[in-house]
């Protein structure tokens, strides 16, 4: 009986020993044999250093770290406990305690020790950094940001960004010569790595978190500085490369952003995030040729990626832009099959219109008009088709139904405004007024007797039939560009101008509705800016013709022309405001920038126009209109 009992005890002890050894072996196996040998060799050297060196603490901390990495967790924790008893006020030793507590998921105790270090050693940066990172993990971002910024100021590694700003080459962080200049900083990093002063949080993680916070706060230069602190010593850190590419995009340095992404892609061609990022950002800056190349490669290389839907959508848009109809059609079919999303059917209808298959487009759109999400967009496109085919009555029927439906959606207002502007640009508004003059006034200007657009002879009449108003609209609604005769007096020109201006007012009213509902949408701001610019151009046309002419034929402008010029300037000032708002939300958009430059030019803000045209020319160096405008401005300034 006793022998059996002893045998049982032996088995239990053996089993526990085996499990313990197995755990150590499994943890050791996480390292390669080469790494294990290197760590064991380093441990022997450290044992010697502990015996001989006066300052033993760094070596003792490193010994505990090596024991921990070799899977000897209990020995490491015991050794650190002894160190804390011997050196209770040493911050480096206390930091090691923090990491053991954190690894054991005793976060509250870890925070208590960090606060103790912070209070006793307020200038000890690692404690602040780790405390800030823990708060960030817990979602206390405001407090974390404050603490991380304080840690950054106290950080032992002070990289003087101004030192290498003058050497701002394509990749300032990949230059070997540059890194040699920061050898002293590298020694500090090595010391910190040896002591594992940041533990599981790491030097890179500290600066990357702070960089992300700066980026979220729209402080791109501070974000870039944090990224550089990482990249100077680790120029293959892909998340940091992706972040600094975003910063370059924000700073409108698109070419540099793409080069950084291509560099990141060379480092790891199998990285889906990097590959997709270069596709997305090339598409965003409208570098469609590069975007097309990378999107095609992405879909071929990662056929099962979760991002394939977005990649296919972007590639279809590029094919649409380049009129590669068959490939675009095939992609839209694939997207419809995979997602069932009606918006892709809408895009397919637009593709067919561009392709010339109007009949097939109509069939798709007729079905989509019954769908809740895309019905109003389908009707808008049908109205556009009607306008293009000269069916103004059909387009008005659709427009009227959309207006009557009171859809509380900014996109509806935006699309209606686009249709009115289309009628204006294609000179088809006169036909619309002949068909629906009184209806338009009743819808948009219910108090028609006070409207400047009602012919004078009906201004006081209470009994005006729709047919009479229609008939009267046939003569006054004449395009201002059709008036060639210099004998036409100013009053008549003004009357014609106001009549011509009505369709633009309808576009402005609808665009204002879109902006009021969603002021952060740059497309809505840009559209409203364009319509106001056009109104300003019409009002101040006579004055500007004289102002921008080197041969002044009429001498001083008349009082009527000056009054119209003042009215036009008000519209131009408003258009400038909306273009600036659009650029706030989409700073890299060349189209918005070009519109702003012409608004400054027409408003006679010549220095602003000159500066803005120069920015446009950087993005579009072969634009002859911009080149001639700059030449003209240079002579005037």
Descriptive overview:
The protein has 637 residues and is mainly alpha-helical. The chain is built from 33 helices and no strands. The chain has helices at residues 2-29, 33-52, 57-69, 73-86, 91-103, 107-120, 125-137, 141-154, 161-165, 176-180, 183-195, 203-216, 220-231, 238-250, 254-267, 272-284, 288-301, 308-321, 325-339, 342-355, 358-368, 375-388, 392-405, 410-425, 429-444, 466-473, 490-517, 522-539, 541-547, 559-585, 590-602, 606-619, 624-636. Helix 4 runs antiparallel to helix 5 (91-103) and helix 19 (325-339) runs antiparallel to helix 20 (342-355). The longest helix has 28 residues, at 2-29. It starts with a helix and ends with a helix. Residues 5-29, 157-197, 448-489 and 492-497 have low confidence and may be disordered.
Question: Counting H and I runs of at least 4 residues, what is the number of helices?
Answer: 33
Largest sheet: none
C-alpha-based Rg, rounded = 35 Å
Class computed from helices, strands and strand pairing: mainly alpha
The fraction of residues assigned to DSSP E strands is under 5%
Q: What would the principal axes of the Cα set say about the shape?
A: elongated
Q: N-to-C terminal Cα separation, in Å?
A: 111 Å
Mean pLDDT: 75
Provide the low-confidence segments as ranges: 5-29, 157-197, 448-489, 492-497
Measured as a percent range, the helix fraction is over 70%
E-strand count? 0
């Amino acid at each position: 009986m006793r022998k059996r009992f002893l045998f049982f005890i032996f088995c239990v002890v053996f089993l526990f020993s085996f499990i313990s050894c197995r755990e150590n072996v499994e943890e050791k196996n996480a390292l390669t044999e080469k790494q294990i040998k290197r760590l064991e060799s380093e441990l022997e050297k450290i044992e010697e250093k502990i015996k001989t060196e006066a300052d033993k603490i760094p070596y003792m901390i490193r010994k505990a770290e090596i024991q921990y990495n070799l899977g000897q967790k209990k020995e490491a924790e015991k050794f650190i406990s002894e160190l804390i008893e011997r050196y209770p006020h040493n911050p480096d030793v206390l930091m090691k305690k923090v990491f053991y507590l954190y690894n054991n998921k005793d976060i509250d105790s870890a925070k208590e020790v960090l606060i103790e270090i912070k209070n006793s050693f307020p200038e000890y940066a690692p404690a602040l950094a780790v405390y800030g990172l823990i708060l960030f993990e817990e979602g206390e971002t405001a407090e974390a940001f404050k603490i991380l910024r304080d840690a950054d100021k106290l950080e032992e590694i002070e990289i003087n960004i101004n030192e290498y700003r003058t050497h701002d080459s394509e990749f300032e962080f990949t230059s070997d010569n540059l890194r040699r200049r920061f050898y002293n900083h590298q020694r500090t990093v090595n010391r910190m790595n040896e002591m594992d002063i940041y533990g599981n949080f790491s030097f890179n993680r500290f600066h990357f978190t702070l960089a992300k916070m700066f980026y979220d706060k729209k402080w791109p230069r501070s974000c870039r500085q944090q990224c550089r602190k990482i990249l100077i010593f680790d120029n293959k850190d892909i998340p940091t490369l992706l972040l600094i590419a975003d910063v370059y995009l924000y700073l409108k340095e698109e070419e540099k952003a793409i080069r950084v992404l291509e560099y990141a892609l060379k480092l790891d061609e199998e990285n889906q995030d990097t590959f997709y990022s270069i596709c997305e950002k090339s598409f965003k800056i409208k570098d469609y040729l590069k975007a097309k190349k990378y999107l095609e490669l992405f879909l071929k290389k990662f056929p099962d990626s979760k991002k394939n839907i977005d990649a296919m959508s972007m590639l279809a848009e590029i094919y649409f832009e380049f009129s590669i109809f068959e490939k675009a059609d095939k992609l839209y079919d694939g997207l419809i099959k995979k997602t069932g999303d009606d918006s892709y059917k809408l895009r397919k209808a637009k593709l067919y219109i561009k392709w010339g298959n109007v009949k097939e487009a109509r069939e798709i759109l007729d079905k989509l008009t019954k769908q809740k999400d895309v019905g109003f967009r389908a009707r808008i496109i049908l109205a556009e088709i009607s306008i293009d085919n000269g069916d103004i009555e059909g387009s008005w029927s659709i427009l009227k139904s959309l207006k009557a439906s009171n859809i509380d959606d900014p996109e509806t207002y935006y699309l209606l405004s686009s249709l009115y502007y289309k009628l204006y640009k294609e000179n088809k508004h006169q036909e619309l007024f002949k068909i629906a003059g009184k209806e338009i006034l009743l819808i948009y200007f219910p108090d028609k007797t006070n409207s400047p657009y009602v012919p004078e002879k009906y201004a006081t009449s209470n009994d005006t039939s729709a047919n009479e108003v229609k008939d009267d609209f046939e003569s006054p609604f004449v395009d201002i560009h059709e008036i060639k005769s210099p004998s036409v007096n100013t009053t008549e020109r003004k009357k014609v101008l106001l009549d011509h201006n009505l369709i633009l007012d309808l576009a402005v009213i609808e665009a204002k509705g879109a902006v009021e509902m969603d002021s952060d949408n740059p497309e809505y701001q840009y559209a409203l800016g364009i319509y106001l610019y056009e109104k300003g151009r019409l009002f101040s046309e006579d004055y500007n013709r004289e102002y921008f002419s080197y041969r002044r034929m009429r001498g001083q402008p008349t009082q009527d022309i000056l009054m119209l010029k003042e009215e036009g300037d008000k519209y131009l000032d408003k258009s400038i405001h909306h273009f600036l708002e659009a650029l706030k939300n989409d700073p890299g958009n060349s189209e918005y920038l070009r519109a702003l430059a012409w608004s400054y030019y027409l408003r006679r803000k010549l220095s602003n126009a000159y500066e803005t045209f120069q920015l446009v020319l950087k993005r579009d160096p072969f634009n002859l209109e911009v080149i001639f405008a700059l030449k003209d401005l240079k002579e005037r300034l």
